[in-house]
Amino acid sequence: MTDLRFHPCIVIPVFNHEHAIGAVVQRLLAHGVPLILVDDGSAAAGARTLDALAATHPSQVTLLRHARNQGKGGAVLTGCRHAHAQGYSHALQIDADGQHETDDVPRFLTQARTTPAEVVVGYPVYDASVPAVRFYARYATHVWVWINTLSLQIRDSMCGFRVYPLAPLVALAQRGALGQRMNFDTDVLVRLYWDGLRMANLPTKVGYPSDGVSHFQLWRDNVLISRMHARLFFGMLWRAPRLLARHWRAR
Ligand SMILES: Nc1nc2c(ncn2[C@@H]2O[C@H](COP(=O)(O)OP(=O)(O)OP(=O)(O)O)[C@@H](O)[C@H]2O)c(=O)[nH]1
Ligand SMILES: [Mg+2]
């Protein structure tokens, strides 16, 4: 199906991934889709790398910058708001650390073109490099997401490779409830689901960061994520009749 309004770009939130971002950008440019890099207050080396990438590819790369670090969610939203204002219909969001399989970009965009009202959500297929503790820790979040949507539609809410339809995302962000840090990826999918969007789940290979840099802060991010699940749980309670009705209709 061809949708004339399907006009995608790629949004990459970047925080200090100077050793990985160059190769990620190079691989993405091959797909001929405009890139929006959002520098989330990186330190000097990261900022310089991003300046150089934008200067080398001025027609394909837009660089936006937060003077201060705001968190992954803040960076994704800055990129997506900008993309929406520029007239793009969809943003493929991919992380900067080289964990994701850029060869899957055409498959994700084809899915988004076919089901433009849905969120295309990657679910990870891991290789042997995944730390076991990370692998099993994800299950706690999966279970919370299934409870908070009263559905199994979101297969993995934490994968940093997905395509958002921009109009509903920007409208949701306008309402102001979204987590701005590492709680964003899950929060935004549950709330888009609550807003009536469907999810198209696609498998994609995920490795462990190519530059070995993880900014996941065990204590702070786990507290944020637990609070988010609790807030979503109460949000689910008053939506439960509507969510259950939707679930049964879908069956
Ligand atoms: N953690 C973190 N990432 C940010 C921030 N701002 C932007 N990002 C970007 O968000 C993406 C995800 O960050 P990662 O550190 O890879 O987090 P993750 O993939 O959940 O964790 P790992 O599995 O350890 O890689 C990357 O592209 C980061 O550069 C921030 O403040 N903190
Ligand atoms: Mg990562």
Characterization of this structure:
It is a single chain. The chain is of the alpha/beta class and 251 residues long. The chain has a single domain, classed as Alpha-Beta Complex (Spore Coat Polysaccharide Biosynthesis Protein SpsA, Chain A). Helix content is 47%, strand content 18%. The chain contains eight helices and seven strands. The protein has a seven-stranded mixed beta sheet with strand order 3-2-1-4-6-5-7, sandwiched between helices. Helix 2 links the parallel strand 2 and strand 3. Helix 3 packs across helix 6, helix 5 packs parallel to helix 7 and helix 7 packs parallel to helix 8. The longest helix is centred in the C-terminal third of the chain and has 33 residues. The two termini are 25 Å apart. Bound molecules: guanosine-5'-triphosphate (GTP) and magnesium ion. The site of guanosine-5'-triphosphate has 19 residues, from strand 1 and helix 3.
